[in-house]
Amino acid sequence: MGPRPTTPPTATVVEIVTADLAKALAFYRALGLEVPDGAEDQPHVEVPLPGGNRLAFDTEATITSFTANWTPPTGEGRLALAFGYATPADVDAAHAALTSAGAPSEREPFDAFWGQRYATVRDPDGTHVDLFAALPAT
After folding, report:
1. What SS3 state is found at 47?
2. Looking at residue 26, what DSSP letter applies?
3. Rounded to whole angstroms, how far apart are CA atoms 76 and 13?
4. Which of 24, 47, 57, 102 stands the most exposed, by the fewest C-beta atoms within 10 Å?
5. Residues 62 and 87 grouped into a single domain
6. Is 136 domain-assigned?
7. pTM of the predicted model, to two decimals?
8. Does residue 4 form part of some domain?
9. Residues 21 and 65 grouped into a single domain
10. pLDDT at residue 12 is higher than 90
11. Do 98 and 124 contact (CB within 8 A), yes or no?
């Protein structure tokens, strides 16, 4: 690797390229993110995340508009998103709400040995979305 930039980045945006923007935005709304009304009609959408970062969504058509040879990836992805909640009950409720809305459950809520209530669902494009909260001290 070459030399580091002299100025660090000032923002973080994680981007999801989606096959069906409406389904993706519905999933992330059900997760509790503030997705603007009417965003389904846009080619690019950004929503705020806790801590000042953003989550962006682009349609496959948007990506191919400036990257002519791009094709959607196949197989398992290498990215997982994780969203923290205030309580273990919130993890259970989020998992139940998402799976009731049709999200596949990858991992039912459980008490992990590392001290968190933890669960995993998949978004409409197959991205793993982890849900977690600290367990009460014993």
Report:
1. strand
2. H
3. 21
4. 102
5. no
6. yes
7. 0.86
8. no
9. yes
10. no
11. no
Is residue 92 included in any domain, yes or no? yes
61 and 107 fall within a common domain: no
Q: Are residues 40 and 89 in the same domain?
A: no
What is the domain extent for residue 62? 11-69
Length of the chain counted residue by residue:
138
Q: Output the CA–CA distances (angstroms, integers) from residue 136 to 66, 86, 88, 114, 132, in the order listed.
A: 49, 11, 8, 12, 13
Q: Read off the pLDDT of residues 21-72 as tens digits, 9 standing for 90 and up.
A: 999 999 999 999 999 999 999 999 999 998 889 999 999 999 999 898 998 8
Which residue do the tokens 């519905």 mark? Answer: 26
Give the three-class secondary structure for 2: coil
Residue 93 lies in a domain: yes
Residue found under tokens 């923290």: 84
- Specify the 3-state DSSP secondary structure of 121: strand
